[in-house]
Amino acid sequence: MPNHNTPAGPAGGALPLHPPEGAVPLHGKLSVSGLRVTYSSGGKSVTPFSDVNFSVDDGEFICIIGPSGAGKSTLLFALAGLISPSAGEIRVAGRVVHGPGGDRAVVFQDDAVFPWYTVEKNVAYSPSAAGWDRKRKERAVDEALSLVGLADRRTFLPGQLSGGMRKRVDVARAFAGDPETILMDEPFGGLDTQTKESLQEAILEIWNSKKKTILFVTHDLEEAAFLADRVFVLQKGGGLNIVPIDLPRPRTSAMRTEPALQSYRRLLGDLIRSQEESGNHVH
Ligand SMILES: Nc1ncnc2c1ncn2[C@@H]1O[C@H](COP(=O)(O)OP(=O)(O)OP(=O)(O)O)[C@@H](O)[C@H]1O
Ligand SMILES: [Mg+2]
Fold it and tell me: Torsion over CA of 279, 188, 183 and 175, rounded to 10 degrees?
C-alpha cells in the first residue's frame, strides 16, 4: 500500500449542465453500491466484504468502526481509489471512481510524512503535485499550517517534532490540496488521550470552517460518537449498521462525559460485540 497521499489531477467529468438557480453542485456526494473487494495472492483469496451500500452527503462527518479485519482500511483504500473493487462501484459527485484523485485526500494510520522534507515542504506536496502556481501554493500551505497550529514549525524536519505534531502535519497535508473529501484511517490511534482529544477538537474546527466531507476510521467508540454525524458499523462479511448521532454541534469537550454521548458509546459497543459473537470467523 502506498504510504503517502497520492495526489492526481482533478477527477474530471461533468457537473449538471443546467443546475437550478441557487442549487449547490454535489461536489462531495459519495455513493457506494454493491461494493466487493477481493484480495488474491498465492492462489488464496480474501473477501473482507461483498455487498456494501451507502451514500454520504456533502460536508458530512462519518466515522467507520467495526471489528478488526472487517475491512475498514480496505473500504477506505477503495474509496481513495488505491485498490479496485471486484464488484460494485463507487461514485463521487456522480462520477465513477477509477483511481486516486485530487478530490480525495488520505491520512494513513502510520506517519506518512516524508522525513527528509521540512514541515512546509510536506504540506506543499499536494499543491505542488496539482501544479498550482507559487502564490496559490504558499497561501494553501500557510492556511493549512495555521489551521493545525504548526505555523511556527514550518522549517522543522519531522524528526524534530513530537508524534502529535507529526499527525498534525499529516492533517495539514490532507487539507492543503483543497480536496472535497478526506479519508482518515485511525489517524489518532497511537496518541495519548490528551493529544488525541485536542486533535479531535482541532479536526472538528477545521471541518466546520472548511466544510469538507470526512470519513474517519477509528477503534475508539467515544471518538466516533464525539466526532460523527453518523457512525457506520462495518460487520465482518460486509453488512453495515448506520447509527445517526443526534447530538448538538458544536461538540464541546464537556459533552464527552454526558449521558447522551456515553449512551451512544455503549450502543456502538453493543453493536460491535454482537458482531464479534455472531460473526467471528475467517472469510
Ligand atoms: N493486501 C492484502 N492482501 C490480502 N489480504 C488482505 C490485504 N489487506 C487486507 N487483507 C485482508 O482483508 C481483511 C480486512 O483487512 P483490513 O485491513 O481492511 O481490516 P480492518 O477492518 O482495517 O482491520 P483493523 O481494525 O485491524 O485495522 C483481513 O482479513 C486482511 O487479512
Ligand atoms: Mg485497518
Answer: 170
- Shared domain for 71 and 123, answered yes or no, is no
Residue 253 lies in a domain: yes
Distance separating alpha carbons of residues 48 and 229, to the nearest angstrom: 25
204: in domain: no
Is 227 within a domain?
yes
Ligand 1 centroid–CA 235 distance in Å is: 13
Task: Clarify whether residues 52 and 75 are in a common domain.
Answer: yes
- State whether 249 and 109 are in the same domain: no
Instruction: Give ion ligand 2 contacts, CB < 5 A.
Output: 72-73
Per-residue pLDDT of the chain (283 residues; tens, 9 = 90+): 333 333 332 232 222 333 333 344 444 489 999 999 999 988 899 999 999 999 999 999 999 999 999 999 999 999 999 999 999 999 998 899 999 998 999 998 877 789 999 999 999 998 998 899 999 999 999 999 998 889 999 999 999 999 889 989 999 999 999 999 999 999 998 888 998 998 999 999 999 998 899 999 999 999 999 999 999 999 987 789 999 999 999 999 999 999 999 999 999 999 998 876 665 443 3
Which residues face 95 on adjacent strands?
92
Among candidates 119, 191, 197, 122, which has minimal Cα distance to 160?
A: 119
Domain that holds residue 135: 104-178
73 pocket-lining for ligand 1 (C-beta < 6 Å)? yes
- Find the 73 Cα to ligand 2 centroid distance in Å: 4
Q: What is the CATH number of the domain that holds 50?
A: 3.40.50.300
74 C-alpha to ligand 1 centroid (Å)? 6
As for how many domains the chain has, the answer is 2
Please report the atom of ligand 1 found closest to the CA of residue 77. Answer: 18
Same-domain check for residues 169 and 42: no
| Helix ranges restricted to H, 24-131 | 72-80, 119-123, 125-129
